[in-house]
Design a protein that fits this description.
about 325 residues, alpha+beta, Alpha-Beta Plaits, 2 domains, five-stranded antiparallel beta sheet, 9 helices, 12 strands, about 20% strand
């Protein structure tokens, strides 16, 4: 049986930033005044430790480039410009044990949202490199679809540069190009390697994205189960073949209201080690065909071909 071994860090780091016209220097006090927030108790208990550091940074002393932060959605383009043009920032950093995840990263992002609300600023995730959507508050339950992966589709047809035939009109279009390359940016916060799927033809981009999302949810579920046993190892070995179910797709969205997929039968995917911190996702060994044929055929549940986004269940107003 083929296996993959990857390193498991004892701690991981997450970073968020808030750009605003004016950022106060006493940011901890600003956070502690937000006593109504669901994460207020966590702010009070973690501030001043490595698990929640907040600091003021001016443009002149930044060690990161604000212009590399991008809008994941067209409606965030204005926020992107505001972030790029800002002179002052609040930076939130959480360095925490992986056994403290996902709560540690949720608290850090909740702090970034609270600071953005208090300063009228724009928050961004420095790990995914994306502007954050401006919710009224961080969800207390963890939902992977809540912008934790940096999972967005590239411009379709490579912004019009790709002229490969459509599979519906020409069978060769199934493998007509290899424009699409997708990679997660965020799993490392939970002690997992990132995932990628590459050389995908344009018509299969959404199926590839949903395979990546669902595989990430499956691996994260298994990883947290493994961590709950209290292993002392600095590496972990897993089967190179993973069985992905309808439940993994629903768990990614965090919604009990998702419609059933057409098949509840698990489908298989294969993982290959690219580097110790990056795994490639592809068709299983027993599939006789190319990656694109696997994505285009009937091996996957139909929902993976047509679901780009889905509203998760509204969280209950409860304390963390």
């Amino acid at each position: 049986m083929a296996t993959i071994t990857f390193p498991v860090p004892s701690t991981t780091t997450a970073r968020f930033a808030v750009a605003a016209e004016h950022v106060p220097h006493d940011l901890p006090a600003l956070l502690l005044r937000d006593s109504s927030a669901a994460f207020a108790a966590h702010f009070a208990g973690r501030l001043g430790t490595a698990q929640l550091e907040v600091r003021h940074e001016d443009l002149a002393c930044l060690r990161w480039d604000p212009t590399r932060i991008r809008a994941a959605l067209p409606e965030q383009r204005r926020a992107e410009r505001v972030f790029h043009e800002a002179d002052e920032f609040a930076v939130v950093t959480a360095c925490a044990p992986i056994t403290d995840q996902p709560r540690a990263v949720q608290v850090a992002r909740a702090a970034a949202h609270a600071l953005a609300n208090a300063t009228g600023g724009v928050a961004a995730d420095l790990v995914t490199g994306h502007i954050l959507a401006p919710p009224t508050a961080e969800r207390t339950s963890f939902v992977l679809a809540d912008d934790w992966l940096g999972d967005v589709l590239p411009p379709f047809r490579a912004n019009g540069r790709c002229t490969a035939p459509e599979p519906e009109r020409d069978p060769e279009g199934v493998n007509g190009c290899s424009c699409v390359h997708l990679r997660t940016r965020g799993l490392r916060r939970f002690g997992l390697p990132e995932l990628q799927i590459t050389d995908v033809a344009c018509p299969h981009d959404l199926a590839a994205l949903n395979v990546l999302r669902t595989a990430a949810r499956r691996l994260l579920t298994d990883h947290w189960s493994w961590l709950s046993t209290g292993p002392a190892a600095s590496t972990r070995t897993i089967d190179a073949h993973i069985a992905i179910t309808e439940g993994d797709f629903k768990d990614f969205w965090g919604s009990t209201r998702r419609e059933r997929l057409t098949s509840s039968t698990p489908f298989q995917a294969r993982l290959d080690l690219v580097t110790p911190r990056l795994l490639a996702v592809g068709a299983p060994d027993d599939f006789e065909g190319t990656l694109n044929e696997w994505l285009w055929g009937d091996a996957l549940p139909l929902g993976l071909y047509d679901v780009l986004s889905s509203p998760a269940d509204t969280p209950l107003p409860k304390a963390a």
